[in-house]
Amino acid sequence: MRPDQWVAGDYADRMAVTPPGGALPPPPTAPAVPPGTPAPRMPLRRLGWRRFLALAGVVLLIAAGAVFMVFTLGESLGAQALLVGVIAAILPVPVLVSCFLWLDRYEPEPLKYLIFCFAWGAFVSTAISLLVNETGARLFDRWGLPSALTAVLVAPFIEELTKAAGPLLLLIFRRREFSGITDGLVYCGLSAVGFAMVENILYLGGYGYRTGVEEYGPATGARQVIAIFIVRILLFGFAHPLFTSMTGVGLGVAARTADRRVRFLAPIAGLLLAMMLHGTWNLLPSLAAATGQPLIALYGYIGVMVPIFFGMVGLAVWLRAWEGRLTERTLPDYVRAGWLSPPEVAALGSLGRRHAARTWARRVAGDGGVRAMRGYQFAATRLALLRDGMRRGLDRKPAERDRTAREERELLDAIGAYRAFFVGRDPQAPVGVWDGQRYHLRFPDGSRRPVEAPDEPVVPIPVVLAPPPPAFPPGYGPSGWHGHRSSAPWPPA
Question: What are the tens digits of pLDDT across the range 446-486?
């Protein structure tokens, strides 16, 4: 059953582009949110003993990897070379991390999961990869094969597998924190940045500073550190994030599909593509050294790797914009039901409009209005992703559907409380209410008349939401039904 005010061809229909496929989920309905209610916090999940043991195990595993890597690098490099390598390897990390955080601005992921992925790549992945690579090198040497084969036949497989293991654990145990390919790129990218940081310590401190000092002195060591820094970081610092981004695409596809076959095959396909790309990268210098033709490596990097890199950058930027446009495709459901007004949905469609909305909120409600607007935008984006998941049929089990309905209610309650900070405070805004179909405005002569919503809504001015007509008989209604809102007073003239 759908609300009485839900009609075809209305303003919300003109805003939305409903994707083809199965039937839409039940339409949302508007709650009773008293004005001035402080924004609620999402309820925290209880830390049961199973979660506590799992968390403790992950922390101990990362700590063990960190201790192992510090001991191994310190023993092989020495204190001075280790310090030089750490300082030089850390320099690009803030820039790379900032790029991934910029990509994740529409719906920022929890900080604890970002730190987990970075630490996993930096310590767990590097520790396992180091042990496996050294074992492979010894085996190749025993079999009379070139040790350079380790970089081609062993390193790409174990390194990509271990880098992807951390984000894969998040997908399995925290699937709701994977909202799509963008999240996969962010999680896998941070894991790769952590891995590259520790690997660069070995190259900069060992092959660079320590080797130069042993041969000709500190000046040569410093010169070699600068040369390696330019080549490995400034020119090819994108390599590890590029490889692992293939796995991130696969994980993101798996997170947003209801097809079990795609959920299983997409991460495998992404991981295999990452391994092949990594192996090709390592193969190019080996071929150049074996044939005495350095142009092989140059042509391979410029002709293959650079186009793939810019292609992934273009995909990431497009996905970032798609995440903003998702609000314009899904939130009109809530415009019809009276939860939101058209300008609010329009103000979420791009980062420029979101910034304009925060500027407006600061003007009409001060710093508290800005904080409320940020919380409102985050909750609205989460709601759009949740609604999109409902349309895609991501929740198959009754417990998952109940949890989705509960999260929808929590987000809608938070949205209603956030908007109370700035609704009705702008003296330049029209005086009126939105009933889900049209505005009811008060004019200077005191008359009140319904006005159809314009094709291009004014942003970012929200208005008071009118109580919707009864859509369900008492005692019935879909999950998420909050009852009927009491009549909202007209804002002061």
Answer: 777 777 776 666 554 555 665 544 333 333 233 433 333 33
CA distance 378 to 418: 11
Instruction: Tell me: cis bond preceding 460? Omega within 30 of 0 counts.
Output: yes
* Confidence band, pLDDT 50/70/90 cuts, at residue 8: very low
Residues 388, 24: Cα–Cα separation, whole Å: 10
Query: Do 7 and 437 meet the contact criterion of CB atoms below 8 Å apart?
Result: yes
d(CA 354, CA 371): 13
Angle among Cα 27, 471, 433 to the nearest 5 degrees reads 85
Reduce the secondary structure of the chain to three states and give it as a string: CCCCCCCCCCHHHHHCCCCCCCCCCCCCCCCCCCCCCCCCCCCCCCCCHHHHHHHHHHHHHHHHHHHHHHHHHHHHHCHHHHHHHHHHHHCCHHHHHHHHHHHCCCCCCCHHHHHHHHHHHHHHHHHHHHHHHHHHHHHHHHCCCCCCHHHHHHHHHHHHHHHHHHHHHHHHHCHHHCCCHHHHHHHHHHHHHHHHHHHHHHHHHHHHHHHHHHHCCHHHHHHHHHHHHHHHHHHCCCHHHHHHHHHHHHHHHHHCCCCHHHHHHHHHHHHHHHHHHHHHHHHHHHHHHHHCCCHHHHHHHHHHHHHHHHHHHHHHHHHHHHHHHHHHHHCHHHHHCCCCCHHHHHCCCCHHHHHHHHHHHHHHHHHHHHHHHHHHHHHHHHHHHHHHHHHHCCCCCHHHHHHHHHHHHHHHHHHHHHHCCCCCCCCCCCCEEECCCCEEEECCCCCEEEECCCCCCCCCCCCEECCCCCCCCCCCCCCCCCCCCCCCCCCCC
| Residue located via tokens 């970089």 | 151
Residues composing the chain: 493
Sign, CA dihedral 204-208-210-213, equals negative
Model pTM? 0.81
Beta bridge partners of 449: 441
Q: Which residues contact 338 (CB under 8 A, 6 or more apart)?
A: 5, 29, 30, 434, 435, 436, 465, 466, 467, 468
CA distance 407 to 386: 8
